[in-house]
Amino acid sequence: MSNHPYYDTILLIERLHRNFLEGLKVQLERLGLRDINNIQALILYNIASDELTIGELTQRGYYLGSNVSYNIRKMVDNDYLKQVRSKHDRRSVRVSLSDKGNDLREKMIELFESQVEKLETSNISKEQLTQTNASLQNLEKFWSMYSDYTSQAFGGGYRYQTGF
Fold first, then answer.
1. Is 37 part of any domain?
2. Closest CA to 16 of 108, 143, 124
């Protein structure tokens, strides 16, 4: 591998996500919650007050992975989510938070607010996070552009755009 920082960034993003999920798992265990896992809790947090289909969950980037239907079904079975079949398309199901799901989301908000408070006593400033977010957003745009370019190139079309 090259010594370009890009390679370190790819690995770091994956490790950060894994560490975040592990921390969330520990917090769920501290709350005594055994009927929901960290991935499901993150999906629940991202749904918020929306009512979404499974397709919308993945399109909005609220969920990564191939077993979203399984996780949604488990959250419905454990009363964290409500599901409603569309009146217009009986195949389409929309999910939203139940009262139990809203209660957990409120606890997650408190957890994240506590983490923000602890950040203020660390060597990570709000400005550094803002700058990091801007860099990661540019990287996200690059990867989106690159995936659009490669899918178009291999699909017969050509749509390469420069700039963000």
1. yes
2. 124
